Please model this.
Amino acid sequence: MAVSGRDGEAGQDVLRRVGEASVLILISLADGPKHGYALIQDIKELAGVELGPGTLYGALDRLERLGLIEPLPADDRRHPYRITAPGAAALRVHLESLERVSAAGRLRLQLGGI
Amino acid sequence: MGEPRAARLIETALRCYPARWRRRHGEEAAELAALLIRDGTPAGSIALSYLAGAAREWLTPRPSRRLRLAACALLVAAGSLGVSAGLLPSTAPARAAVTGQSHGPAYCRPGPPEPGPGVIPAMGGPHVSGWETGHGRAC
Model:
């Protein structure tokens, strides 16, 4: 079941239930195609999260089934992946949703005086 | 852990994935494991990650697997309906014979209720239980 570009633009947060690994992969692919090893290194650098290779391939398959990423022709034995237009739209919606929640959380902490 | 032993461990873990997955990612996954081991990641933790991934891969329902499951469920349902339908006509005459009535079921016949819960053979009648006569059932 692929996600169309319009779903992302309509404001539906399709990434809410895909898990943290999938979101981190999309963020990592947002600045260009990468293969598995580069993704693991980049995610470790940007988020301090060490993705296990089993988790990585599970998330890649899920994102590909949703049409949020696509494989590029194999470079030697490595398959680079790139984010699709619906993937970029879904990531944008998800990040905006996270920002709203984050702002609300900070405001409540201020109001609570904690 | 020695390099050949680590490679064997990873290979064993990768063999746990479905064939479809191995055809798609197998070589790349082995190469990725080799790179991670070279960077200092313990082979055991890589193998564990692949084993967990393989378990998830087998347990996650795929569209084709879902279709197969639905087809099986339909077949089972149709089969059980067929068996039930086949049993209905075959049990009706048997019940009629047991109640000793030739025209229709006794529990729908107007008139005084059958003696229940059963006539004791020693008192001169056949032993018929209340369940068989339908005593107490509504028409």
